[in-house]
Amino acid sequence: MYIGNQIIELEKVDSTNKYVLRLLEKNKKIDEGTIITTHSQYAGKGQDKNYWESEPGKNLTLSIVLQPEFLKIEKQFMLNKIIALSVYNFINSFGFKKTSIKWPNDIYIENKKVAGILINNTIRGNSYDYCVAGLGININQEKFISDAPNPISLKQISGKEYDLKECLNTLCSITEHWYNKLKNEQIKIINTAYIEALYRYNKFSKYILRGRPIKAKITGISEYGKLILQTKNNETYSCDFKEVEFVI
Length: 248
Prior knowledge:
Blueprint: E1 7-13, H1 16-25, E2 35-41, E3 60-66, H2 77-92, E4 99-102, E5 106-109, E6 112-124, E7 127-137, H3 154-158, H4 164-183, H5 187-197, E8 205-209, E9 212-221, E10 227-231, E11 236-239, E12 244-246
Parallel strand pairs: 1-2
Antiparallel strand pairs: 2-3, 3-7, 4-5, 5-6, 6-7, 8-9, 8-12, 9-10, 10-11
Helix pairs in contact: 2-4, 2-5
């Protein structure tokens, strides 16, 4: 298996993740490593029902199909980590500085969002059936018209036009690298790389926690993917992504 062994190109679709999930509901067989990409995605989703804006033909909008049967279900946040690291390394491969992973699934350049990730897992019995990792990466888009607060594209920063097929090939190679590390149980390497890339790690910043403003620093991520915050008074909170908001 290698990531991108099969690429299904769609002219237009509501969401590449939804497209894959519809196929799976019909018991269609999809080879591991298959990429579904589209020229135009008109109903892309992010976390918590957020809309993902993408101008047709300007960005990477795709889904990667994996079958992580080797992974225990309770370790599913490891999939988030390796996909986030893949996109993070992909952005860095173009020489961009101040790139980070904003927990749980966004990629930032400074305080601007350049990519989003949405992972859908399907489970059969006590093991994984499929993992569908949906990615939206802003590449060549120059204007954003939605009410999203802080989007940015690679072209807006560098002024350069990027070849989307070359970008996809690079992304596939990097994703395969991190997926193989997960397969080979190189958990410590993955965890260390994720923490080192984490947005605002160990820096006191403002958050809205369960409806109230606090100032705290990120001290880690729990085994189950919860964000660990610590205040200056040494109060520690373990937060689900719906419980905490970053103030940017």
